[in-house]
Write a structure and sequence with these properties.
Number of strands: 21
Number of domains: 2
Shape: globular
Number of helices: 12
Distance between the termini: 59 Å
CATH class of the largest domain: Alpha Beta
CATH architecture of the largest domain: Alpha-Beta Barrel
Bound molecules: pyridoxal-5'-phosphate
Structural class: alpha/beta
Length: 418
């Protein structure tokens, strides 16, 4: 069941008409459906209920505090990649015991912060990082709980920019060298080995890469056991895809069914790090058409939301379905839907066939909940959009639209220019 649907030709978010939201909060506007978030999270919970597990929502997909709080209240932990994300997760009430920390560039202050808060584990990405975390733990008189992020050299068959588990990528430790790394970790005085981690990429739409990667990692876990290194947490990462157009990605239940036989009888707590599959289809980006412009070769629809609000089309050439908020049964047009930013790469869609639009119409960019607002910027000095959460017939502002003064917050004029 889709919580973004038409009633009498008008797009609704749950029980709220989207044009009402645009009127009240302005555009561009992110709108999230609380019930969709709940359903997606619970689908993971249910899928893995027969195994000891922790679902650590990947904060970078959408880090709004209200979304974190909602997921946290359902029992979610957090997969973080920075000190800032740790701050957000803790502030949203997520227990540090359910927080895992990945990323190739953890700074000293970030490591210290995470150690002091007592997170579940660090997912280590390099030998130097492992040593550095051990040193910092030593100064704090703590033991650092770690997993090594294994790069299993599996092709997730997704966009190259969101693929992470191949030998050529900067992420993780080559699986051939993993045992050697674990031996080194065992020799570190302030480090406690508790897990193995992998995350091979994002927007993965078939099960096979997950199974292949998991098989490789389980062989590693057996090898480690022979060495006397016991692994308690198996972190299988995130990456499950969503439907943007005609993909049919596996449901978390299918993933669970396919990997259960591999996990059965093993005394492992499974950690999952879903991001996109929780929040992607729980959000839309609403924008207003400013102008239609007849170009030499094509018509441009110029909207008030662009790459500064939703970067995915520009960055990944990603496809997002775009629909009129009010259906008018006009004839179709073929158009580029672009934003106001001064870049030729600023587009939401190219060569798109859509019901004819005119100035003032509202459009909704679908599947925009993940890597949407979290990648938004102030480029061209555009205040970032407002965010709203809908639940039933209620709607709540969860992030104020930025104002001009927010743009210059923190900037200072040197003495000699005053
Ligand atoms: C980005 C990321 C995720 C989430 O990926 P999705 O495709 O959004 O599910 C999980 N784990 C790690 C380590 C990541 O970097």
């Amino acid at each position: 069941m889709n919580y973004f649907r038409y009633r009498n030709g008008l797009l609704h978010a749950e029980d709220v008409p989207v044009d009402l939201l645009a009127g009240e909060y302005g555009t561009p506007l992110y709108v999230y459906s609380a019930r969709t978030l709940e359903r997606h999270f619970n689908a993971y919970e249910k899928a893995f209920e027969r195994f000891p597990h922790i679902i650590c929502y990947a904060v970078k997909a959408n880090s709004n505090s209200a979304i974190l709080r909602l997921l946290g209240s359902l029992g979610s932990g957090a997969d973080i990649v920075s000190g800032g994300e740790l701050y957000r997760a803790l502030r949203a009430g997520i227990s540090p015991r359910k927080i895992v920390y990945a990323g190739v560039g953890k700074r000293d202050d970030e490591i210290e912060y995470a150690l002091k808060k007592g997170i579940l584990m660090f997912n280590i990405e390099s030998a130097e990082e492992m040593v550095r975390i051990d040193e910092i733990a030593g100064t704090l008189g703590k033991k650092a709980p770690i997993a090594l992020r294994i790069n299993p050299d599996i092709d997730p068959e997704t966009h190259p920019y969101i693929s992470t588990g191949l030998r050529k990528h900067k992420f993780g430790i080559p699986i051939e060298e993993a045992v050697e790394y674990y031996r080194r970790a065992r020799g570190l005085k302030n480090t406690r080995i508790i897990g193995v981690h992998k995350h091979i990429g994002s927007q993965i739409t078939t099960i096979t890469p997950f199974v292949d990667a998991l098989e490789r990692v389980l062989v590693l876990i057996d090898r480690l056991r022979e060495e006397g290194i016991e692994i308690r947490y198996l972190d299988i990462g995130g990456g499950l895809g969503i439907r943007y157009s005609d993909e049919s990605p596996p449901h978390p239940g299918q993933l669970a069914r396919k990997i259960s036989p591999l996990l059965r009888g093993r005394d492992l707590t499974v950690v999952l790090e879903p991001g996109r599959s929780i929040v992607g289809n729980a959000g839309i980006m609403v924008s207003r058409v400013l102008y239609l412009k007849e170009g030499e070769e094509r018509t441009f629809v110029i909207a008030d939301g662009g790459m500064n609000d939703l970067m995915r089309p520009t960055l990944y050439d990603a496809y997002h379905e775009i629909v009129p908020v009010r259906k008018r049964r006009r004839k179709k047009m073929t158009t580029d839907i672009v934003g106001p930013i001064c870049e030729s790469g600023d587009f939401l869609a190219r060569g798109r066939v859509i019901e004819s639009l005119s100035r003032g119409d509202l459009i909704a960019v679908l599947s925009a909940g993940a890597y949407g607002f979290s990648m938004a910027s102030n480029y061209n000095s555009r205040p970032r959009a407002a965010e709203v959460m809908v639940r039933g017939d209620e709607h709540y502002l969860i992030r104020k639209r930025e104002e001009y003064r927010d743009l210059v917050r923190g900037e200072e004029i040197p003495e000699f220019l005053r």
